[in-house]
Amino acid sequence: MHCRQIRLGPLSRDGVVALLAHELDPRVAHRLAPGAFAATGGNPLLVRALAEDWQASAGSAGREPPSSLVVGDRFAERVVNCLHRLEPEALALARAVAVRGEAPDRA
């Protein structure tokens, strides 16, 4: 069997809205999309994780659905998964940012 890996670019802002609208109520999707795009850069895996975190929070018994983006466990897990797919240097940089709390200055 012959396979070819195809790299896809990130979703556009409209693409993020469309993906969120597929997962959530369209009104909620439009409200969350700007923050989701900023947090994910259009990565579909991460956008879906934000939708799942929002749904989990909205489904909590006795709570009102959140009015803003929810960055929860699913998002954190998928970010870590994405980092482990990168070169070792990228993972090292992410670890340094996590420790410092900010990106180091470029030399």
From TrEMBL:
Origin superkingdom: Bacteria
Protein name: Uncharacterized protein
